[in-house]
Fold this sequence. Notes:
Elements: H1 2-15, H2 18-34, H3 42-49, H4 62-73, H5 76-89, H6 92-117, E1 120-121, E2 127-128, H7 131-139, H8 142-176, H9 180-195, H10 198-227, H11 229-244, H12 258-273, H13 280-284, H14 292-324, H15 333-342, H16 348-378, H17 383-399, H18 403-426, H19 428-440
Antiparallel strand pairs: 1-2
Amino acid sequence: MQEISNIISSVSSFLWGWPMLIMLLGTHLYLTLILRFPQRKIFTAIRLSLKRDKNSTGDVSQFAALATALAATIGTGNIIGVATAITLGGPGAVFWCWVTGILGISTKYAEGLLAIKYRVKTAKGKMLGGPMYALEKGLGWKTMAILFAVFTAITSFGIGNTVQANAIATIARDTYDVSPYLTGAVICCLTGAVILGGVKSIAKVCSMLVPFMALFYIFGCCYILFVNAPYVWPAIKMIVESAFNPAAAGGGFVGGTIIMSVRYGISRGLFSNESGLGSAPIVAAAAQTRNPVRQALVSSSGTFWDTVIICALTGIVIVSSIIAYPDIDYKDGAALTQAAFSKIPYVGSPLLTFGLLTFTFSTILGWSYYGEKAAEYLSRKVVLAYRILYIAAVFVGSIANLALVWDIADCMNAMMAIPNLLSVIFLSGVIVKETRKYLWEGQLDKDMEEEEPMEQ
Length: 456
């Protein structure tokens, strides 16, 4: 088993090496340029996400689709992942994580557009979409579409399920001395109660949970920054300066080169916002929207909230705490996060615990939808079996040692990204055409032409 683990770990490191980072970041840059910097429309995107296209075709509102995508995206990567980037790449990694989020808005926009453009309506009126449909309908790559669906279904049991359940169980055990078996049973029941109701049930819970947990965490971080007020500006200066000159951070940090700072900042940013992985478009396809560009803009706002706001706040909180409390040990990401937040009396540790618990549980819900739709693309007959297995995996994840699962999940994430990025790049002409039609020519309120229902 150890030998197998080492092999998979090596494969994961290779897949998430510089070629993948360059491919993702290159796609972000390419789409940013050909789409004329869609980041400029972020406030329009936020406004649209709060509106409801009542007469539009779809299963859930645009806000519900966004909330479900954010539920799957906002997780331990926003907290532990940022701290890990700091320990490995220095404070400058926060800057590169933030830049990745800014550029990733373009890719998330493109993914959302293709999700609506190539979605299909079943005979029962349900909407199905995502990269597998863009690959099949837009490019005629049926085999690649099947591979994407397979990788997504497998990934949902890893990064979207067992590792998240394990994180919740670990937090409950270490903080409150609760047995992982009890935690696993409770999470199983909660997960089953939600996902057996399908997309509307998942979207409804996420629509209530995500805004609450995100606002609670943001306000909590702002309070910590208020307490750390004398160290906030020095922290921001350290983050920016050490992004280009790691020595500016001072001794002690592992990240001693610009390459280390860039690598870990970009990689953690990509993990955090999932722009380019192809997961969020699966739920974006279910949104009630007038045309592809409206949903594309709404989808792009997810990366803004996830990385540009939450990851940036987390990074500034951690770096300011390091400056304020030099005794903090910043050699390990999880330990650094715990130490940085615990230095704030009364609210620090509860805020971190609540944030991790809610973020990880919401990720379980969001990824259940992604995996189910991937499984449904392969065969509708396996949907119920998938849900049952998914619920059972929550309990397994709560009590198991998941070092190997993490590496497998990382591999599957990379394998998801490759066909998705190919679809975005080869269909970039379609993306530009639709953007010109609805956005650049000022027809954002125009309805698209719906296709006849297709039995799937």
